[in-house]
Amino acid sequence: MRKTVLGGIAAALLATGAATGVLVGSAAAESEPASVPGGDTKAGDTESVPSRGVVRSWDLDRMQGVIDSDDVPGGCHVTFAAVAVDGFPALPQGQQVEFEWYRLDQPESGLAYECSRAWPAGQQPYVEPRAFRSRAWTIHADGSTEEFTGQSSEPVPAAARLTGHTTGTVRMWNDEEGWGVIDSAQTPGGCWAHYSNIVGHGFRTVTVGAAVTLDWEQVTDQDGYRYRATRIEQHRN
User: Fold this and answer.
1) Is the pLDDT of residue 173 over 70?
2) What b/e string do you get for 8-36 counting C-beta neighbours within 10 Å, with b at 16 or more?
3) pLDDT at 30 over 50
4) Alpha-carbon dihedral 148, 150, 154, 160, rounded to 10 degrees
C-alpha cells in the first residue's frame, strides 16, 4: 500500500488516506522566508527565534514531528509545511536541524512551542519560488519515498484503512509529555496513545497496568510503533 503527498509552502490536509498515510495537497502562493529576529529577541515575542536541535520523531502518517533543543524544553512541534527543503517535506528522526520557533499561548499539540521553519543543519533553508507549483511523492509501506513526475489521468487508488476495537493493558505512560503505549493482541509491538484520545474531561491520563478499551488504526510509523489509538477508555473498578 502507498500514499501520495502533494507538497508546497501553503499546505492543507484534504483527506485521510489509507493505513499507510494521508493525502495532502497544496496551492503555492507568493512565499517569503520566515523572519529572523535580532539578537535581543526572547521567547514570547511575535517573531520566530532561531535555534539548533535534533529531530526527536517524525510521523509519516500525519506528516509532523517534534524537535528537541535546550531552547524549547519539552520539544517543539513541527509540520511538513514548515520544512524548508527542496524535496520531500520531512525530517528524519535523529537529524540535526536549524529551526525557527515561537511560543504558543494556547498549545494544541501538547507542546508549548511551534516551529515556523526548519532545515538540515549546515545548509541554507529552501525558499519556494514566487509562482504556483505542486509536487507529488509516493510513500511506500516501508517508509521510502519516490517523487511522482509522470502524467496520468488515472486517480491514485485509496487503500483500505485498517482499524480495530479491542481491550488492552497500559504498558507505560508519561504524564509530562502526554503519551504512552498500550499492549493488546490486535496491536503486536504496542499501540502508541496520546492523552487527547482518552475519554473524559480536564486532565486526562491512564494508569500503568490498567485495563483499557481502545479503538486503533494502523500507521506507517508513529514514534517507532505501527499502531495508534484513536479512542481510549479506562475500565472503572
Assistant:
1) yes
2) bbebeeeeebbbbbbbbbbebeeeeebee
3) no
4) -20
One-character DSSP codes across 155-174: PPPPPPPPEEEEEEEEEEEE
Write down the pTM of the prediction.
Answer: 0.51
Q: Under the phi-then-psi rule, with left for phi > 0, alpha for psi from -120 to 50, and beta for the rest, what region is 163?
A: beta
Grid cell for residue 108: 494544541
Residue 21, classed as helix, strand or coil, is coil
- Compare 44 and 81 and report the one with higher pLDDT: 81
Residues contacting residue 50 through CB under 8 Å, at least 6 positions apart? 36, 37, 98, 99, 100
Cβ pair 36, 105 in contact under 8 A: no
User: Which amino acid belongs to residue 141?
Assistant: A
**If you write DSSP's letter for every residue of 178-190 in order, what string do you get?**
TEEEEE-TTSTT-
Q: For residue 33, name the pLDDT band (cuts at 50, 70, 90).
A: very low
β-strands 225-234, 211-222 pairing: antiparallel
